Amino acid sequence: MNNSKVKPTASELEILNILWSKGPSTVREIHEVLELNKDAGYTTTLKLMQIMNEKSLVKRDETSKSHVYSANVSKELMQGQMVKGMIDTMFNGSASQLVMQALGNHKADAKELDEIRKYLDLMDKKK
Amino acid sequence: MNNSKVKPTASELEILNILWSKGPSTVREIHEVLELNKDAGYTTTLKLMQIMNEKSLVKRDETSKSHVYSANVSKELMQGQMVKGMIDTMFNGSASQLVMQALGNHKADAKELDEIRKYLDLMDKKK
DNA sequence: TTTGTCTTACGAAATAATTCGTAGGAAGGA
DNA sequence: TCCTTCCTACGAATTATTTCGTAAGACAAA
Fold first, then answer.
1. Which of A86, A107, A108 sits opposite B86 (nearest CB)?
2. Does domain B10-71 sit in CATH 1.10.10.10?
3. Which of A27, A73, A102, B66 could make an S-S bridge to B26, C-beta 3.0–4.6 Å?
4. Quick count: other Cβ atoms within 10 Å of Cβ A111?
5. What residues does each domain of chain A span?
6. pLDDT for the residue numbered A21
């Protein structure tokens, strides 16, 4: 039940991303997706997922012969952790600095900008 | 002169941060700052900075006995790289998703929100 | 000059992360 | 049953990162 502050490595994050988008999956299924972008052996993927299980990043259902893994941390939580880490180490603790950097370099389209504006208004009203 | 896409490790990033805020410094000076937060030997810091020099993350002036190091990548560039990496790996390529996550969890104060709004307007006008 | 202090360079140990080979068991078809 | 295929577990090799011990030179004070 200990779960706070686990930092996934880059490889682990790739796997989590697949689990978040596909939902519960076997090692084989995950591996097939990974293979599209990089090449690694099947047992490499397996091992990685076993380690993630030990770390409680994922949980697994051992009912059937092929274990079924699912993410044990939410994408939102992990996003939050990572954004916070980034703000702390690279933006002197200022969320808005990060926001401006993000907007500056990756021109969101008009629709996106609008969403953000709405979001800002929403936050104002909450006060 | 090859410099694109160097990824600093966590330790290297700590050093870069110090260089960015203090400007050109000797190993001794950097080490003294690092010591405030963690404990590591002097030669550890030295080695790290030598490696960073090889990677061209920093450059050094060997004129005096104590070499003087300075950052060889701008903070803004590195912030950009890292934000981009984050957007790509964790936010499906959407900058605004990251922005909202950042705003959601780290309530920027009213003044900050205002800055962001101004920034958004600015971007609109640019179009 | 001799000694103590500070510096760099170098190599290698310690630790962390990734990769893979091999063994053994389950399941299905011939 | 016997063979082939697929699965897990495990241990160890490989690679990356961090840490530090030691040597050698510069320099200044005694």
1. A86
2. yes
3. B66
4. 8
5. 10-71, 75-126
6. 97
